[in-house]
């Protein structure tokens, strides 16, 4: 028996799915009463918002995971990290798409990913507005609800839609040059305000690829597994301490990955 089999991966996979669904319903309770939420800004960036909903959902997930798997580590957007040296580290975004959430746009989700020995191993992304649970586990495939996911078979950016995004603190200077090249090649852009959902849509073949000038690990951890299991390609997001600091991010179907990487240029691997 290998050391990996000693870990109960099935129990963790089942818990990730169940917890994402439960947390998403908690999110819906807040979302229906969102006018009552007090919105705070993180630091100086007016676009970087948070509310009690984000904090309470993360606290709920963290408490449950600690009860279920006390030996595991944790990294969450709102409450920080613990035991990052553990073999299993949960990486959580309680609400991905908070700007959508507070403005009444139905594009947000709960994202729960698990690293095992430093590699993304399983993930669950729950979108309660569309009744979609995206989930996957290394070697077991990726699914939306019960339907298997497969990336697009496209071989050129002109054959579909590509997601893109940026944020203020770092990397935005790479955004317009990429957009110009994408449009010049006959591609088309998409952004719905949730990096986790856009990643899941790449896995589902709805989008050809997704480039964000800078993303955090909790935005994409769960989705990276889905893209790999659905046959897609991902960049080396974890280099240079990407887990804690974030990095430029590209996921795509194999037929357009290189084309998108070339449009982005060297900043993808900075
Ligand atoms: C944000 C979303 C958005 C991306 C930002 C993220 P949040 O996460 O994923 O699509 O463009 O970089 O910060 O703040 O809604 O959890
Ligand atoms: Ca996020
Ligand atoms: Ca968030």
UniProtKB/TrEMBL annotation:
<keyword id="KW-0805">Transcription regulation</keyword>
<keyword id="KW-0460">Magnesium</keyword>
<dbReference type="InterPro" id="IPR033942">
    <property type="entry name" value="IMPase"/>
</dbReference>
<comment type="similarity">
    <text>Belongs to the inositol monophosphatase superfamily.</text>
</comment>
<feature type="binding site">
    <location>
        <position position="77"/>
    </location>
    <ligand>
        <name>Mg(2+) 1</name>
    </ligand>
</feature>
<dbReference type="GO" id="GO:0008934">
    <property type="term" value="F:inositol monophosphate 1-phosphatase activity"/>
</dbReference>
<dbReference type="InterPro" id="IPR000760">
    <property type="entry name" value="Inositol_monophosphatase-like"/>
</dbReference>
<dbReference type="GO" id="GO:0006020">
    <property type="term" value="P:inositol metabolic process"/>
</dbReference>
<keyword id="KW-0889">Transcription antitermination</keyword>
<dbReference type="GO" id="GO:0046872">
    <property type="term" value="F:metal ion binding"/>
</dbReference>
<feature type="binding site">
    <location>
        <position position="95"/>
    </location>
    <ligand>
        <name>Mg(2+) 1</name>
    </ligand>
</feature>
<feature type="binding site">
    <location>
        <position position="219"/>
    </location>
    <ligand>
        <name>Mg(2+) 1</name>
    </ligand>
</feature>
<dbReference type="GO" id="GO:0007165">
    <property type="term" value="P:signal transduction"/>
</dbReference>
<feature type="binding site">
    <location>
        <position position="93"/>
    </location>
    <ligand>
        <name>Mg(2+) 2</name>
    </ligand>
</feature>
<dbReference type="Pfam" id="PF00459">
    <property type="entry name" value="Inositol_P"/>
</dbReference>
<keyword id="KW-0479">Metal-binding</keyword>
<feature type="binding site">
    <location>
        <position position="96"/>
    </location>
    <ligand>
        <name>Mg(2+) 1</name>
    </ligand>
</feature>
<keyword id="KW-0378">Hydrolase</keyword>
<protein>
    <recommendedName>
        <fullName>Inositol-1-monophosphatase</fullName>
        <ecNumber>3.1.3.25</ecNumber>
    </recommendedName>
</protein>
<keyword id="KW-0804">Transcription</keyword>
<dbReference type="GO" id="GO:0031564">
    <property type="term" value="P:transcription antitermination"/>
</dbReference>
<dbReference type="InterPro" id="IPR020583">
    <property type="entry name" value="Inositol_monoP_metal-BS"/>
</dbReference>
